Amino acid sequence: MTDTNTDFSDSEIVVNGIIGDVVEGESYKFYGELTNHPKYGEQLKVSTYEKNVPTSGAGLVKYLSSEHFPGIGQKTAEKIVAIFPENTIDGILDEPERLSGVLTDVKLKAFVKRLSENHGMEKILSKLAKYELPSKINFQIYELYKEDTLEVIKDNPYQLVFEIKGIGFKKADKIAEDEGISATSDARIQAGLIHTVLTNSLEIGDTYIEARDLLEKTIDLLESARNVEILPNQVVENINFLLSDGKLQANDTKIFENSLYFAEDGIHQRLSKLANRISETVDADKFDTIIQEVEAALDIRYDSLQKDAIYKALTHQFFILTGGPGTGKTTVIKGIIRAYAALHKVDLNPDNYTDDVFPIVQVAPTGRAARRMNELTSLPAATIHRQLGLNSDDLEDDFGNDLSGSLLIVDEFSMVDTWLANKLFAAIPPSMTVILVGDADQLPSVGPGQVFADLLKIPDFASVKLDKIFRQGEGSTITNLAHGIKDGQLPPDFTAKKPDRSYIESNAANIPNYIGQIASAWLKRGNDPFDLQVLIPMYKGIAGINHVNKVLQELFNPLEERLEFAFQETVFRQGDKVLHLVNEAALDVFNGDIGEITDLVPAKYTESKQDEIVMSFDGNEVIYPRGEWYKITLAYAMSIHKSQGSEFPSVIVPMVSSYSRMLERNLLYTAITRAKQSLILLGDSRSFQTAVARQGANRKTYLVERFGIEVPESEVHGDQAAETVEPSLVVEEVVSENVTAPESYILTEDNVTTIDPMIGLTEQDFELFFGQS
Ligand SMILES: Nc1ncnc2c1ncn2[C@@H]1O[C@H](COP(=O)(O)OP(=O)(O)OP(=O)(O)O)[C@@H](O)[C@H]1O
Questions:
Q1: Any residues with CB less than 8 A from the CB of 293 and at least 6 apart, and which?
Q2: Cβ proximity of 118 and 51 under 8 Å
Q3: How remote is the CA of residue 468 from the centroid of ligand 1, in Å?
Q4: What's the pTM?
Q5: pLDDT tens digits for 119-170?
Q6: To test the ligand 1 pocket, which listed residue (304, 334, 469, 471) has its Cβ within 8 A of the most ligand atoms?
Q7: Which residues line ligand 1 (CB under 6 A)?
């Protein structure tokens, strides 16, 4: 390192960024920011760089006649410099034809190609700027096409959709329109098809799309993006072309995006080897002895279904355990671990494995779920990403490690999507025993597929569904409510006040106000604000996550005289509860993790020269400069999808008709099963009933069929009739009982500012829920 304009005294520095071919021995100028990487220490994060080019006449002649440019001797180099005495390199790249008298056509072409390989990057990047793409994407484009970049973009910008992550159809279409490419070109139709197949999977969660839907949706997309009529025949021809070219895959009329097709295929190939495979024969006497030892050690008596689960887990190489809350999944896992250890003489003290790996591997899709596994079993547990060494959500580029160990237990498997399941199964060594645990009635994974629910449909895999509720004995009515909802029934006492749950009638406009009153009562009793979690299906609207977060932030963490940082619609303050939105394995924080802002550092004090937020995620300190704040949001209220895999002492679940699009049985079920001690349902009973009655459509996947099992047509298309299903009538009768809903609660435009509706809860009620003030 020869020169720097920042405070850096070392003669060497690690440079990190998206950099083209760096040639040893050449000298470069890098521009960027000094950052402190948690693992690699101080380094320069490069935003742009250039190769040092000689500028003086003599230097240039020497350079152009060097071994970089075969066929150019000193004389020719002198002639070239004479033609372009100033801005030589740029001049040649801009107007190479002026050298036609100096070099033959062939030589000129080769020379310009070489020159642009060496020096064209910045020129090309500056020309790319007119398309207004993020600079990271510009680098990616240049990396791939090098000196052909501008040509590719001019001739077929749709190619970018296939080859550059981050460029979707709409961006490419905009470039194409600017470049005058016809709206009915095959290239445009193909890009539209690929875009439709992928977005359909990402938005709906299906792993394929029926050809006729693809046709319809693609024509819609192509016709709405530009004013043009698209002929169905031309689209069909292009579907066939993409299939024959391997850019899409098909099974009959089901059309798949490549990575999902191969991920499902991978899951099938790996798991079919494990189907029905007996890992160990254990006779009845031996099993009895083992189970008695385990029961004595854990001071519990397993019921016959639970014993069956432990037996199957011991004897099959692949076993699936499912069950609702409080049915004893964790209790069974503990039993499986102990029984496995007894059978295989495994020492369960991880500290005694200094040289060998601990043979029992516990993983879960989220950090929180992994930590809970670790707390409940007292054995190591990690996220799937961490265990596999995957660094990001971009699974295509991450190869990951193979697993080592002899027993793998995966909890919260319903959250694992098709891509991650494929990665996980691919990493399992042939002799490893695999146990998947989850609750198939919860929401499916955020990403495409419903691997857990699908695997449970395959009879070749040993599985047990626990259905007896054991938590009942502990006076929990939340668990009963959950099981009722799972079975499509709101219990008759749904609106009654219970020690651990209550129901408050509210319309959407009152939701923030009521939540505020509940939160105040919570605070007044000295409870920890972080232990009260609001779970909402939607972000927008008066009763949406964003608004409720603002209300709760003002209550739980008012500004007072401190600093706050604004970011988009949100402000962040020290002490705020925040949610991490993506997987960041290198920093050990994951999608769904909840943390606290411990400090806000203004740009003038930071090395990044940007404002920084310091957070603690269960003691793990993470610092994000402003550029990374999109990875976090406030977490007083959060989406039900993001709450999967987490549990909270007290939960408030609003359900009102303005969420109507989202109201579904497994959504409500997932929300209320997050509550450990108390649950407040807030909303209108109609909406709760709609949610319970509406069985969400099954996702369309091809996994089950791959195992030779036919899926009935009705299952693939879900419960289309659900919206018309009459909800349980029992509820209708009790809804009005016990519920305070005076007229004044209903806000109109006139009274919205003047009334302050009080919630239908008394101090005694709050005492019952939250304890003495
Ligand atoms: N056979 C049993 N006899 C007595 N109590 C049991 C039995 N099985 C489970 N329990 C008790 O039931 C409660 C719930 O069990 P556990 O936590 O294992 O269920 P879970 O399915 O993991 O629940 P969740 O999914 O809500 O965490 C625990 O208190 C546990 O001790």
A1: 338, 342
A2: yes
A3: 10
A4: 0.75
A5: 666 667 767 777 878 767 887 888 888 878 888 888 889 989 878 877 889 8
A6: 471
A7: 300-303, 306, 323, 325-331, 470-471
